[in-house]
From TrEMBL:
GO terms for cellular component: multivesicular body membrane; vacuolar lumen. The lineage of its organism: Eukaryota, Fungi, Dikarya, Basidiomycota, Pucciniomycotina. Residues 1-18 form the signal peptide. This is triacylglycerol lipase. Residues 26-46, 346-369, 457-524 are annotated as: Disordered. Residues 488-498 have a biased composition (Acidic residues).
């Protein structure tokens, strides 16, 4: 009785997922948007957001309630009056645009579908047991997952000022509440609190506009390495980072094997084992959804957007996929690997229907860059964003991190700082203030250094920072016309590099279709 139905269901499941079930009016969860906000899109294209709260969630002591600190307008005025390195105005203006998006109709169904796609009835059978009650329930509930087509406001990521405003909100999450850095416990916090700023956990800075209609959560993780500053890094953070961003459970120390012991032999890894570890041992994703739900409960009628830097950026992107809301992430390590291992369900993409070729041919499903909700902003010299922070000699290796993933979900806006500014790979280019000051400006790459640029491009060493395969201008494999190419076009690489001549925001692109993580590894 228990065994048979789930198997039958499992057989039906892929079919259901492939079909695009039209959204029909089920009693939908109210928080997403009120009728008024949907029917009458705000005429104002500009939103002014100011800091309202900081919230902190422990990743190790999950039973403890989250902390919250509220900022009064008086405190904000005091903060803004304080001249401080790396502290930007607590009020930021952004531009928006309308996008079409898909979002899950129910979080319960989304999470059930996520779990059910790992703990399948087939897995239970292979393990020689009956599916558990939870597995059966997840399978059933997961099948009710549907994706609604909605039209929503999103930050205009082609606008430099908007990107910079998000960067500044993200940066403030590190430096507030006061000048002496993020370890300080400001007024309003429970000072005796054992899990305050100093230990691991996740912090969100909540910004809202005057009408409480638009809320931005800037998310920050607490790894000292990722902050780029000193301080002890909790073991738990390393564990989480290495679980998420390394190919096969990079070992931190002797205790690591209890977390993830999936390494089989040289460059061979048991994939199922890693997925199990990520699904069950990683605290980041469940804590992040708690954070989102708590802020959503504070502002039940608001549209919520996400921002984050580094680890916080990866988390923002995952929440963006989970809730179908916009995110802007800066210098995130590759988040595609953990998103896959977490089994985050993806919305069905619109297949190009073609009567002449009913099979659909080989044409990939259409995806629109304009409508993509998840945005990654990073540059080519940052070893963390490019999956080069690994190995025992690198800074990361010494600190016990292996950040090896490089592929990002959603769309990527990639500043070619190696090619245009002559930067070399250096962890000191990772901090958010570098991005804000050097890149999120109008003419970031239009320097008179064209000579240096060309030297860098000719240099062999720079080839590992090139564009991902498929997008690259490096190896035109089919269309090189031999001699014909030599005449005029050989120095014309600039026009096609997606960098818009170093002005404003580089062209976004999808990298997850062409990028591959951990290519040295065999997963069994
Ligand atoms: C502060 O937190 C500790 C531990 O969580 C708790 O025992 C104590 O009652 C809290 N104090 C206040 C004033 O809330
Ligand atoms: C917005 O929310 C805050 C609480 O964070 C509340 O104090 C304020 O009155 C709200 N403003 C409006 C216009 O609803
Ligand atoms: C807020 O977070 C706590 C965990 O810190 C969680 O137990 C609670 O359910 C969350 N609240 C909401 C409304 O999601
Ligand atoms: C998918 O196609 C449907 C019908 O053509 C359209 O209404 C919807 O907006 C499309 N969704 C996306 C995300 O493009
Ligand atoms: C269908 O596909 C064929 C070949 O790929 C193309 O020539 C034709 O224009 C397509 N029709 C539509 C309606 O997209």
């Amino acid at each position: 009785m228990l065994l048979v139905p789930p198997i039958a269901l499992a057989a039906v499941l892929p079919l259901c997922a492939a079909l695009q079930i039209p959204f029909h009016a089920r009693p939908s969860t109210p928080p997403t948007s009120t009728p008024s906000s949907r029917d009458a899109p705000p005429p104002a294209q500009e939103h002014t957001l100011s800091l309202r709260h900081a919230v902190h969630f422990s990743t190790t002591h999950r039973h403890l309630p989250p902390s919250k600190r509220d900022y009064s307008t008086f405190e904000l005025a005091a903060l803004d009056a304080q001249p401080d390195v790396g502290l930007y105005s607590s009020t930021q203006s952004i531009h928006t645009k309308r996008v079409r998006a898909r979002r899950p109709n129910s979080q319960e169904a989304f999470q059930a579908a996520r779990r059910a796609s790992y703990w399948t009835p087939l897995r239970a059978m292979q393990e020689g047991r009956l599916p558990t009650r939870q597995e059966v329930e997840d399978t059933l509930l997961g099948q009710t997952l549907e994706w609604e087509d909605v039209e929503i406001d999103a930050p205009d990521v082609k606008d430099v000022a908007t990107l910079a405003a998000f960067g500044k909100m993200t940066s403030n999450a590190y430096t507030l509440p006061d000048s002496s850095g993020w370890y300080d416990i400001g007024g309003g916090w429970n000072v005796s609190d054992s899990f305050g700023w100093q230990e691991d956990g996740m912090r969100g800075h909540v910004f809202a506009d005057e009408q409480n209609k638009t809320v931005v959560i800037a998310i920050k993780g607490t790894s000292a390495l990722i902050v780029g500053g000193g301080g002890g890094t909790a073991h738990n953070d390393k564990t989480n980072d290495n679980l998420f961003f390394s190919c096969c459970c990079a070992r931190v120390d002797w205790s690591w094997s209890t977390v993830c012991d999936c390494f089989d032999s040289s460059y061979t890894c048991r994939e199922d084992c890693v997925e199990h570890a990520v699904m069950t041992k990683s605290a980041y994703y469940p804590v992040a959804t708690d954070l989102y739900n708590n802020v959503s409960a504070l502002y039940p009628h608001a549209q919520i957007w996400l921002a984050g830097h580094s680890l916080g950026g990866a988390i923002a992107a995952m929440l963006s996929r989970t809730y179908g809301v916009p995110s802007i992430s800066f210098e995130s390590p590759g988040d595609l690997l953990p998103a896959r291992r977490l089994h985050l369900p993806l919305p069905p993409t619109n297949r190009s229907r073609n009567a002449t070729h009913p099979s659909g041919g080989d044409k990939p499903p259409t995806r629109s860059l304009d409508d993509e909700l998840t945005t990654h902003v990073f540059h080519t010299a940052d070893p963390i964003a490019n999956g080069q922070c690994r190995g025992t000699i690198s800074t990361c290796g010494i600190a016990g991190f292996a950040l090896e993933s490089k592929c990002h979900t959603g769309k990527s806006i990639k500043y070619d700082t190696v090619g245009r500014l002559g930067w070399s790979t250096d962890i000191r280019t990772h901090p958010i203030h570098v991005v804000i000051e050097k890149l999120l400006i109008d003419d970031w790459g239009v320097k008179p250094d064209e000579v240096a640029v060309q030297r860098a491009q000719g240099d062999e060493a720079s080839s590992w920072f090139g564009w991902w395969p498929g997008r690259g201008n490096k190896k035109p494999s089919e269309d090189d016309g031999g001699e014909g190419a030599g005449e005029g076009g050989d120095e014309d690489e600039e026009e096609d590099d997606g960098q818009n001549g170093g002005k404003g925001v580089p062209e976004p692109h999808f990298e997850d279709e062409t990028c591959s993580d951990c290519s040295k590894w065999t997963f069994i």
